[in-house]
Amino acid sequence: MGPYEYQFLLLAAISFVAGAIGSLMGLGGGIIIVPVMTLFFHIDFRLAAGASLIAIIATSSGAAVTYVRSHLSNIRVGMFLEILTTSGAISGALLAGRFADSLLFIAFSLILVYSLFPNGRKILEALRGREPDAATTVASDPGFLVKALKLDGRYYDESLGKEIVYGVRRVPLGAFVMYLAGLASGLLGIGSGAFKVLAMDSIMGMPVKSSTATSNMMIGVTAAASAGIYFLRGDIDPYIAAPVALGILAGSLAGTRIMPRISSLSLRIIFFAVIAVISIQMLLRGLGLA
Predict the structure, then answer these.
(1) What is the pTM of this model?
(2) φ/ψ of residue 60, rounded to 5
(3) Torsion angle in degrees (nearest 10) through CA of 114, 120, 121, 127
(4) Domain limits of the chain?
């Protein structure tokens, strides 16, 4: 087996793991595979970002069907917020060629670090005996957009053995964060699921399982909005994109079978650990210390 075939198989295997973890957390896998390709395979950041965007589209297609069928995804919320993320993704893709790689690494790291704080707070709450998604949560004053678009939702939680009914709040603020998520997606070649989950979970009050499932549904559309620009710019290499897309698609399908059966606390802990490690690696690379 030659070096190119070995790299192909290794990229596909790592992408499988990234896809499974990304599907569990609504991140799309790009947030994991981009650092791996740049840090360990020494692939140019823009080529890694382009391959990641193609893989994210595959991930979303594979995972979204399962989550929509089980009602974990909130379709109304996803369709409304996708307007903002798509606009941001196009803006980010147009700006991507204007920044140095080191700046992109540092920006990537700061985005990840920011997403850790609300997640860490909810982990501490859960460890103290309060499971954030265990009780039904319906906002007393949901606001005009929530009422007009009927954004509230419900789903059956297999790990708790009960139906979760939840309300949605602070939609304008969540929509603004979604635009920033789209901007990050186009700029960095990720699904920006960390920002999407942050907006829906911590700002809009949706349960973490519904947030991650809805994020999985949205990331493919966001990635598609910026992937075309990367393709026209010549930043998508089929030899890199193919194994990454195949591996992440297979991993995401495996993740959809696991997610309904594990607790919200476990999801949050996995999310926190993965994002913390990657953010440190990317910051070191951006500062030239890796």
Answers:
(1) 0.72
(2) -60, -40
(3) 170
(4) 3-286
